Amino acid sequence: MPSLRVVFAGTPDFAAQSLRALLQSHHEVVAVYTQPDRPAGRGRKLTPGPVKTLALEHALDVYQPVSLKDADAQATLASLNADVLVVVAYGLLLSQAVLDIPRRGCINVHASLLPRWRGAAPLQRAIEARDAESGVAIMQMDAGLDTGDVLNEARVPITATTTGGELHDALAVLGADTLTATLDAIAEGRAHATPQPDSGVTYAAKLSKAEAELDFTRPAAELSAKVRAFNPWPVAWCTLGEERLRLFMASAGEILSDAQPHGTLLAPDNDGLRIACGARGDEVLHVTHAQLPGGKAMPVRELLNARQPRLAAGNRLGRNSEGAPQ
């Protein structure tokens, strides 16, 4: 089987899974591009990302330019004589001049079924929107934002309990497997690129900590999807007095016969908290994993067994319309 000379560009764990698969394939990884080391930990020491760490373990040449816009950076990339540049969560936008350097162009592993969820946070937005499935698309890159022709795709279901972390891990493995299969097809001349349809385009905005605050006037199904989507980051939260309660797993519960004020803690069951929510306060958000201020994330039943007075029925969570604690 013919092999390709590959330059790999990526930074986080998601990308490291694809690099690992390439290193185990018959294709030749000639160099790795990744973001500059970032401060991390209490000492704010410059720390390499997962892709750089893996690349150094395999004695690969590593390049960490701040930008690929200048002529010198582009000349360095051209000198690597790559057949293809594989881009997975790299963190830099590539100009057309860069895309034109590899003989067979640049391909991207994107964590959605394009054209749905172009942009920065596709897998979290898919869970938040209560999509029935997600997947990966291997895309021939162009100068647009995730607008290139699709070479290959693979799908996975999103269940009622799928979290952002679980979908991330599943798509990282699926993306790596689909990437190597696609490179094989390119090398053998079997690859076929399909233009994305004009309909069905959605954009996955970058996640923020501010949007992770729960509004208990919203429906329980919407809130539970947000809780799962934002686990493990940025983590859904609500005010608990003057502090924050962080929520890691939730589902939509029953409909109440008597509406309650939004955010009211109802009598708990054996597995979790029950919080009144919805436009009329007659829906229930059922929370099974949470973290109290100063504590660790744990099953709510353990918090209830400790008889936490802050979680007693009748207390209220969240903010009122003026933004003050309820």
Please characterize this protein's 3D structure.
Helix 1 packs parallel to helix 6. By secondary structure, the protein is α/β, with parallel strands linked by helices. The longest helix has 24 residues. Helices cover about 25% and strands about 25% of the residues.
Features:
disordered C terminus; 5-stranded antiparallel sheet; 7-stranded mixed sheet; alpha/beta; 326 residues; 26% strand; 24% helix
Topology:
Layout: E1 5-10, H1 13-23, E2 28-33, E3 38-40, E4 45-47, H2 50-57, E5 62-63, H3 71-79, E6 84-88, H4 96-99, E7 106-110, E8 118-119, H5 122-128, E9 133-140, E10 150-157, H6 164-187, E11 203-204, H7 220-229, E12 236-240, E13 243-255, E14 273-277, E15 283-291, E16 298-299, H8 300-305
Parallel strand pairs: 1-2, 1-6, 2-5, 6-7, 8-11
Antiparallel strand pairs: 3-4, 7-9, 9-10, 12-13, 13-15, 14-15, 15-16
Helix pairs in contact: 1-2, 1-6, 5-7
Number of helices: 8
Query: Helix content range of the residues, please?
Result: 10-25%
CA radius of gyration: 23 Å
Q: Largest sheet, if any?
A: 7 strands, mixed
Number of strands: 16
Quaternary structure classification = single chain
Shape: elongated
* Strand order, largest beta sheet: 5-2-1-6-7-9-10
Query: Would you list the SSEs in sequence order as H and E?
Result: EHEEEHEHEHEEHEEHEHEEEEEH
- The pLDDT mean sits at 95
Strand content: 25-35%
What would a concise description of this structure say?
By secondary structure, this protein is an alpha/beta fold.
